[in-house]
Specification:
Shape: globular
Number of strands: 6
Structural class: alpha/beta
Strand content: 5-15%
Radius of gyration: 19 Å
Helix content: 25-40%
Length: 234
């Protein structure tokens, strides 16, 4: 099972799983326009126009992927009305249609249940021994590094604490739980009682200051010792 609170992301997964060839065909129609700001703005404006919800799922998924590949730094950002508002990216040669990867992902997603759900919904579905991974909006590492409006709603400190509580509940039920987040004093405190906490370097390309892009520290948290065997997917 894969779940996310962002319905547009789950839509993309669903279309990749169920109709990947139609998706590739529509992406190929978008691809020649990658360097055209006017075309980008027109496609971006679809969610401001009447009838957007009536467009086909393939059309909406292809739009989301095209905008992701051509907007500034691949940033997914919504305004207060839930409308995509990241600016044009001015790329020289973005990969709009990654056919082999899309087909491979489609194969991997077969028989996978896809849900639009709050992270706490997992509490109603898991059994002891299940493996769960959480990848939330990360805690900001500075006042200018906030990226918490992933779905048009703020993923606040309250939500971070609620997520930590869910992780601890799952661990108490005998589940194997892994989570990634920013490496900050706040996250270290939230997960201080976990069996494993490790700091890794991850590449980041999104920052208004180009000098601050590059490797950043992430905190990897596990409810179990890292040398303990965990279940593998069937």
């Amino acid at each position: 099972m894969l779940s996310d609170y962002n319905p547009e992301l789950i839509l993309c997964y669903r279309v990749v799983r169920d109709d990947v060839e139609a998706l590739i065909a529509v992406l190929q129609e978008h691809a020649p326009h990658f360097a055209d700001p006017a075309y980008f703005l027109e496609v971006r404006s679809w969610d401001r126009q009447p009838g957007f919800a009536e467009r086909s799922e393939v059309a909406r998924a292809a739009r989301a992927m095209f905008l992701n590949r051509t907007c500034y730094n691949g940033l997914y950002r919504l305004n207060n009305k839930g409308q995509f508002n990241a600016p044009f990216g001015y790329y020289k040669n973005p990969l709009i249609v990654d056919e082999n990867n899309l087909r491979a992902v489609s194969t991997a997603l077969q028989n996978v249940e896809l849900l639009v759900a709050d992270f706490a919904a997992v509490l109603d579905r898991v059994l002891p021994g299940d493996l769960i991974y959480f990848d939330p909006p990360y805690v900001p590492v500075s006042a200018t590094a906030s990226f918490t409006h992933y779905t048009g709603q703020t993923f606040s400190e309250h939500e971070q604490r609620r997520l930590a509580d869910v992780l601890h509940q799952l661990a108490g039920r005998g589940c194997y739980v892994m989570l990634s987040n920013s490496h900050t004093a706040f996250t270290r405190e939230l997960y201080r009682d976990c069996a494993t906490r490790d700091v890794v370097l991850a590449s980041r390309k999104i920052n208004c200051d180009g000098k601050k892009r590059g490797n950043v520290e992430e905190l990897i948290v596990c409810s179990y010792p890292i040398d303990e065997a965990v279940p593998t997917a069937a």
